[in-house]
Amino acid sequence: SECGQVNTSVMEDQNEDESPKKNTLWQISNGTSSVIVSRKRPSEGNYEKEKDLCIKYFDQWSESDQVEFVEHLISRMCHYQHGHINSYLKPMLQRDFITALPEQGLDHIAENILSYLDARSLCAAELVCKEWQRVISEGMLWKKLIERMVRTDPLWKGLSERRGWDQYLFKNRPTDGPPNSFYRSLYPKIIQDIETIESNWRCGRHNLQRIQCRSENSKGVYCLQYDDEKIISGLRDNSIKFFFRVLFFLMKFEHNFCLTYKTSSSLKIECLQFFPQVWSTSTCEFVRTLNGHKRGIACLQYRDRLVVSGSSDNTIRLWDIECGACLRVLEGHEELVRCIRFDNKRIVSGAYDGKIKVWDLQAALDPRAPASTLCLRTLVEHSGRVFRLQFDEFQIISSSHDDTILIWDFLNVPPSAQNETRSPSRTYTYISR
């Protein structure tokens, strides 16, 4: 429909000698923000007078008529004018919804939106304005971020238990509980702890504790397993010894020992002579043979598609269990590789040469990584063959033919050892039995 014609006549009593201002400022409000428009060029003709009359008519129309009129005007403009209008509209269409939501009584929605931010983004959000900072503080979003990391990352979970700050998590904040600032300052300390642990692993800095498993006619500790409370070891003299983790108190002594192994996978791997064989546990059918080792298989572990095996040919091999391909050969041990464990980051191996080696798993899976970068650290403390080891994010526990159990603690490293960059560390705690 045609727009109503605008009467362009001007009141006779208006001062026609008044020239338009060169820098006319006028303000438009959209209800939530104001935009100041500055005209830096002189107007032409009777623009100022005609403009006021147009606005007078415009204000009298309904909203739908106003929109239709503006659309008609825009359709008559050139691309250059469209660009100016677009630049003008952008800031008007932007809204601070985080600030607006609490004004509508919807604080919980604003908190929920910001709770998805990572630490770097949460730091930036605190600097936006005081209202954003208030939402983050009252919503305890730093606490929620730490709780999310503890739920999803075993390193964070273990660190929370060992450092004791797990007591402040997963609870509704009491009136006298820690404020948001406590968790805000706790987060960088956790990150520093994690970086220190990673550095200790790579540089070989550790606190070493030694358990002497002396018994009659003992010829070595052949196997072990541990949890947060105790260490259980099997000795060659037909005995099992239990030690409490806190004081390494000998808890129980029995004759005979056995090993157990469990897995949730549908595949079972057995070793026969020089090669591992893969069997299906659901059908008991033979699947394939992994060929490559030149001598007998002494140890292996597998998870998902990855198999890591150690052999008396002194090498470690990584295999793809689905296709049977050898992904990498790790060389460095001088004698039979007796024990292998790995997680998502590292492979830890022990051998009859008395050495424990820490390998970079992700680099080993990258065919472009040079072989010289794969071994992160060699730990040399055992005086006999290394028979068994187990590790987590914070420690390695190993047993040997030298009748000892060693605990390599990468979390609680003495300050005197922090500047050490070579292995072995000489920070022993001797515990004899």
TrEMBL record:
Pfam (any one): F-box-like
Compositionally biased residues, Polar residues: 1-12
UniProt entry keywords in alphabetical sequence: Repeat, Ubl conjugation pathway, WD repeat
SUPFAM superfamilies, per database record: F-box domain, WD40 repeat-like
Positions of region (Disordered): 1-25
PROSITE patterns cross-referenced by the UniProt entry: FBOX (PS50181), WD_REPEATS_1 (PS00678), WD_REPEATS_2 (PS50082), WD_REPEATS_REGION (PS50294)
InterPro entries (UniProt xref): Beta-TrCP_D, F-box-like_dom_sf, F-box_dom, WD-F-box_domain-protein, WD40/YVTN_repeat-like_dom_sf, WD40_PAC1, WD40_repeat_CS, WD40_repeat_dom_sf
Molecular-function GO terms, alphabetical: protein dimerization activity
Domain F-box: 107-145
Top-rank taxon, per record: Eukaryota
Repeat positions for WD: 290-329, 330-362, 379-409
Protein name stated in the entry: F-box and WD repeat domain containing 11
Organism field: Terrapene triunguis (Three-toed box turtle)
Taxonomic lineage of the native organism: Eukaryota, Metazoa, Chordata, Craniata, Vertebrata
